[in-house]
Every structure is written in structure tokens, then in C-alpha cells.
């Protein structure tokens, strides 16, 4: 696919200047497909792998419409993990800090009291969080108001289905206005995603950047106990062996390392 300039995709001059400062010279495939569709006001189902640039694919159009008409509680971004939420927050701040963008991240591993205080005393444009922590605030405080949200993003949506996620998402969706734009991004398409797509998106445009949308049938976990004082040497040797002898596509294995100072 030929590279596309952000200007040709309809991105405003101000954001294009920011992108140039960040060293982003051209759009990735998912960005080139999604940004014009989002700017036209359509819901999106985007199938794109991790590392494809999908965060900017939804962050840029959200930011562009926001700076044209600033308002608080503008967008809600849901992610399955704390780490991804923090990463998305950084992307938004990189793009929007000079426009005065305020982003709140509601995830585990942080003091709930600090989050309550931030919700109560500071107004934010973008709210990013995990379904668990977002639903906790909806159930236990009156500070998180989602009734004026204009954009909902479900990132890595395939990882937010099943178990407690289902009831948490149901609660969150019930607090959102019907009149909103929804972007759902996933590396895979499953029957469960089809159901949630039907429930919360309106005539979405489906965008694909890869033909591989199947999940791994079996995931093996390897646990290795290491003496703490020799941890780095063991890890370096193991990773070198894996890189040399194992094809990642042939071995869907997630290694976990444990060390014990009593060794």
C-alpha cells in the first residue's frame, strides 16, 4: 500500500504540525483507512494487529473534532489492561498536550481515593480505563458521569469478552448516550465480537488490514524458577536460545520467570 500523508486524509493543519514534530511522516495502513471514515462520523470495526498504529487511528479523529468544539467528558476509551491504558494515555498526550488536552486514566494499581479526588476536582476531555475500574467508579461514586460522552472506543475488544468483563461492559454501556460514535478495534474477529458489534455500533464500516483473524487454540505457559543472583544470565541465555531455535508462530508459548532470594 502506498503511504498516505495525514494532510491528504483530512487531518487539520494543527495536528499535522504536531505529527511532524513527533516524526510521523506518513500514515500506516489502518490509519489511512480509518481516519477519513472516522472524520465522516461513521462507526468503525477495525481489524488490525498490535503495532499497526491503531491507537492514532482513533486518537487523531477524536482529537480533531474535540479541538474544533472543546468539551469535557468527550471520549471514553476502554482497554483490557492497565498497561495498554497507560500507553494510550501517552499517545493522546503526545498528540494533544499543546492544545490543553486533559486525560484521566482509571486503572488498577492506583489509589482509588486519588482517582475520586481527580474526578471531583478536575475536568477531563478523555477518560481511559479498564472495564473493572470504570464500573467500580460507576457503582461506588457519583463523580464519573458518562452521559455526555461523544466517542466510545473498545481497544483490543477481543480481550474484553467473557467472565466479569461481560457484566462490566453491560453496566458501562447502559450509562452512555445512544447518540455517540463507537470505534471497536481488535486483532481477531469472533462470534462474541459480532454480538457486541450488533449491540453497540450503528451501521459500522469494517476495516481490515490482515487476513489472519483466528485466535490461538492452545497457549502453553512455561514456568522457570531462577536463583535471584543469576537471574539476568539465565534470562539472557533462555531468550537467546528461543530466538535461535524456536519460531514464534510455531510455538504460542508465554514464558514466566520467578526468582527466589533463598536459592
UniProtKB/TrEMBL annotation:
Short sequence motif Q motif: positions: 4-32
InterPro entries: DEAD/DEAH_box_helicase_dom, DEAD_box_RNA_helicase, Helicase_ATP-bd, P-loop_NTPase, RNA_helicase_DEAD_Q_motif
Enzyme Commission no: 3.6.4.13
Cross-referenced SUPFAM superfamilies: P-loop containing nucleoside triphosphate hydrolases
Residues annotated as domain Helicase ATP-binding: 35-207
Every DEAD-box RNA helicase Q domain range: 4-32
GO cellular component terms, semicolon-separated: cytosol
Top enzyme category: hydrolase
MF terms in GO: ATP binding; hydrolase activity; nucleic acid binding; RNA helicase activity
Keywords: ATP-binding, Helicase, Hydrolase, Nucleotide-binding
PROSITE patterns: HELICASE_ATP_BIND_1, Q_MOTIF
Pfam families to which the protein is assigned, alphabetical: DEAD (PF00270)
Keyword presence, Aminoacyl-tRNA synthetase: no
Nucleotide-binding as UniProt keyword: yes
Name the record gives this protein: RNA helicase
Organism: Schistocephalus solidus
Amino acid at each position: 500500500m502506498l503511504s498516505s500523508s495525514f494532510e491528504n486524509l483530512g487531518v487539520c493543519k494543527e495536528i499535522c504540525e504536531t505529527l511532524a514534530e513527533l516524526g510521523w511522516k506518513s500514515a500506516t495502513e489502518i490509519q489511512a483507512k480509518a481516519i477519513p471514515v472516522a472524520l465522516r462520523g461513521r462507526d468503525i470495526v477495525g481489524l488490525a494487529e498490535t503495532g499497526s498504529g491503531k491507537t492514532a487511528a482513533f486518537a487523531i479523529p477524536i482529537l480533531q473534532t474535540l479541538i474544533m468544539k472543546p468539551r469535557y467528558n468527550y471520549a471514553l476509551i476502554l482497554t483490557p489492561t492497565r498497561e495498554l491504558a497507560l500507553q494510550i494515555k501517552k499517545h493522546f498526550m503526545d498528540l494533544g498536550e499543546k492544545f490543553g488536552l486533559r486525560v484521566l486514566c482509571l486503572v488498577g494499581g492506583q489509589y482509588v481515593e486519588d482517582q475520586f479526588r481527580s474526578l471531583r476536582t478536575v475536568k477531563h476531555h478523555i477518560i481511559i480505563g479498564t472495564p473493572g475500574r470504570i464500573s467500580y467508579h460507576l457503582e461506588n461514586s457519583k463523580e464519573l458521569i458518562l452521559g455526555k460522552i461523544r466517542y466510545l472506543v473498545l481497544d483490543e475488544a477481543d480481550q474484553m469478552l467473557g467472565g466479569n468483563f461481560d457484566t462490566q461492559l453491560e453496566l458501562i454501556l447502559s450509562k452512555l448516550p445512544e447518540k455517540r460514535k463507537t470505534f471497536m478495534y481488535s486483532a481477531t474477529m469472533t462470534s462474541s465480537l459480532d454480538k457486541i458489534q450488533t449491540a453497540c455500533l450503528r451501521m459500522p464500516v469494517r476495516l481490515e488490514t490482515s487476513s489472519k483473524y483466528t485466535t490461538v487454540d492452545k497457549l502453553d505457559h512455561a514456568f522457570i524458577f531462577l536463583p535471584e543472583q543469576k537471574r539476568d544470565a539465565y534470562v539472557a541465555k533462555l531468550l537467546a536460545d528461543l530466538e535461535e531455535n524456536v519460531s514464534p508462530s510455531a510455538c504460542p508459548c508465554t514464558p514466566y520467570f520467578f526468582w527466589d532470594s533463598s536459592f
